[in-house]
């Protein structure tokens, strides 16, 4: 429940399983997970899930409806401080419980109507709700095991570090060498174990893309997470470039001067040569003129988007940009992030005459700095949690947990709220389109590129998962020979 990154989600998806699952490839199909079937009312606001009694924890403990009730209560409990709790806000009174406005969880729209029947009631019609359930935040957790290791709502509970980790997915933990590798083996108690072909998987912690490539070339790993930027245009035989709903962007601290000025933010954006940046540094992707990727199904309804008028800063505004010394740009210590930062540093110096100081750091430290507002500019990416524009635009809501820009705009929030009351898909997307136009006029973030998922894949690996939102299920993967 504390996992937030795609990498953490990839491992969680091997060890755990939610109510529904992802197919081997694609995103539209909804497959049974712990729930063998489900029904939904005409308004698409109330779901009843029938749980598979053969779905048990790896220690043999049954998974019943109350397991999900307690798991969802845990992630929504305020003191547990789970960032992904916002994904549950579609549920009746979930937001109010998470924000401490109500304390009685029985008022939240999650209930066990029998041992193996779970009911989820929403605030409103959410046509894509089943898609959201694929996200790892919705996975159940072994309540009995967590309680045996400490407080159920304690962040410091070490149950997940237990070498005999109890899970319910296709695989179970075999060993965990911190900062080195995680080994998992087939879960013999998994309800669909006969579909699981690969007996064991190892996840290696290799942050440097060149090191990943060397390990791949040496046959030490079968799949990399990325391709070194200098190799992306080399037409190498095992290179893969999958479409993905992911945007690389700059987040700007709008509470600090001079970036509290929208004109300054727009000027920074317009000084960026995105085509050159992609050609010379990133080597893949498409220049982004908005936050929501162009590959988002059904969005936008028009190809145009209101772009801010060209901004030419007056000398007094340029002086304000330089007044407090260099702007601080923070990035994670991945090589491509550093390269991007250096390219942007040069563009801004050449076109605006401003100085930018770059600081790179370990990813967790980087996120902490963003959360604490200890930065001016940060380079980051957002990958959709599900295939709908709302998963991007909700990030910039005034009180959003991931709104690290600290930008607040009631008009923007009102448009997001309005979209949630519209049952017609076309009307909902029109409203979100207006919200995004407003977002790009204010520019609290600067979209850089719409990404692809670039990686090397060994020819012996068959049926490797592909997903627009980077959801993975390993049960369908098999090895040739």
Task: Describe this entry's structure for a reader.
With 481 residues, this protein is of the alpha+beta class. The protein has 2 domains: 6-198, Dipeptide-binding Protein, domain 1 (Alpha-Beta Complex); 242-452, Dipeptide-binding Protein, Domain 3 (Dipeptide-binding Protein, domain 3). 28% of the residues lie in helices and 20% in strands. It has 14 helices and 17 strands. It has helices at residues 6-15, 65-76, 94-98, 129-132, 143-149, 209-217, 262-270, 274-282, 315-323, 335-352, 363-372, 390-393, 410-421, 425-442; strands at 20-21, 31-32, 35-40, 46-51, 110-114, 117-121, 171-177, 181-186, 200-204, 239-252, 286-287, 327-332, 356-361, 377-383, 445-456, 461-462, 478-479. The protein has a 6-stranded mixed sheet. A 4-stranded antiparallel sheet has the order 3-4-6-5, covered by helices on one side. The protein has a 3-stranded antiparallel sheet with strand order 7-8-9, with helices on one face. Helix 13 (410-421) packs antiparallel against helix 14 (425-442). The longest helix is centred in the last third of the chain and has 18 residues, at 335-352. The two termini are 37 Å apart. The model has no long low-confidence stretch (mean pLDDT 92).
């Amino acid at each position: 429940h504390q996992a937030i990154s795609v990498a953490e989600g990839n491992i969680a998806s091997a060890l755990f399983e939610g109510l529904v699952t992802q197919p081997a490839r694609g995103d539209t199909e909804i497959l049974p997970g712990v729930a063998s079937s489900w029904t939904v009312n005409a308004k698409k606001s109330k779901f009843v899930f029938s749980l598979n009694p053969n779905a048990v924890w790896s220690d043999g403990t049954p998974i019943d409806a109350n397991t999900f009730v307690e798991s969802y209560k845990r992630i929504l409990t305020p003191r547990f401080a789970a960032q992904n709790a916002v994904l549950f806000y579609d549920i009746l009174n979930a937001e109010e419980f998470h924000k401490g406005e109500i304390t009685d969880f029985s008022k939240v729209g999650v209930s066990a109507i029998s041992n193996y029947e779970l009911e989820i009631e929403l605030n409103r019609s959410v046509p894509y709700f089943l898609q959201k359930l694929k996200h790892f935040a919705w996975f159940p957790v072994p309540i009995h095991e967590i309680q045996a290791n400490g407080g159920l709502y304690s962040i410091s509970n070490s149950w997940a570090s237990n070498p005999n980790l109890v899970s319910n997915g296709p695989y179970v933990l075999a060993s965990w060498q911190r900062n080195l590798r995680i080994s998992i083996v087939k879960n013999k108690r998994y309800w669909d174990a006969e579909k699981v072909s690969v007996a064991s998987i190892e996840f290696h912690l290799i942050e440097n893309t060149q090191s990943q490539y060397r390990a791949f070339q040496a046959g030490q790993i079968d799949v990399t997470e990325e391709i070194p930027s200098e190799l992306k245009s080399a037409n190498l035989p095992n290179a893969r470039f999958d479409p993905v709903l992911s945007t690389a962007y700059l987040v700007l601290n709008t509470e600090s001067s001079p970036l509290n000025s929208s004109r300054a933010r727009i000027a920074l954006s317009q000084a960026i040569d995105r085509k050159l940046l992609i050609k010379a540094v990133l080597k893949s992707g498409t220049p982004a003129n908005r936050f929501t990727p162009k590959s988002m199904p059904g969005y936008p309804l028009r190809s145009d988007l209101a772009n801010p008028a060209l901004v030419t800063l007056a000398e007094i505004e340029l002086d304000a940009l330089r007044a407090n010394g260099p702007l601080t740009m923070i990035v994670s210590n991945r090589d491509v992030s550093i390269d991007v930062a250096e390219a942007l540093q040069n563009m801004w110096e050449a076109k605006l005459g401003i100085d930018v100081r770059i600081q790179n750091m370990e990813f967790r430290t980087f996120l902490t700095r963003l959360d604490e507002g200890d930065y001016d500019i940060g380079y980051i990416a957002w990958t959709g949690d599900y295939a709908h524009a709302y998963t991007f635009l909700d990030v910039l809501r005034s009180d959003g947990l991931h709104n690290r820009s600290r930008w607040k705009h009631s008009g923007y929030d009102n448009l997001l709220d309005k979209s949630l009351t519209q049952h017609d898909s076309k009307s909902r997307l029109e409203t979100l389109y207006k919200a995004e136009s407003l977002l790009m006029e204010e520019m609290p973030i600067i979209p850089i590129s719409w990404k692809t998922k670039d990686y090397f894949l060994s020819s012996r690996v068959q049926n490797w998962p592909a997903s627009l939102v980077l959801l993975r299920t390993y049960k369908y993967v098999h090895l040739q020979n």
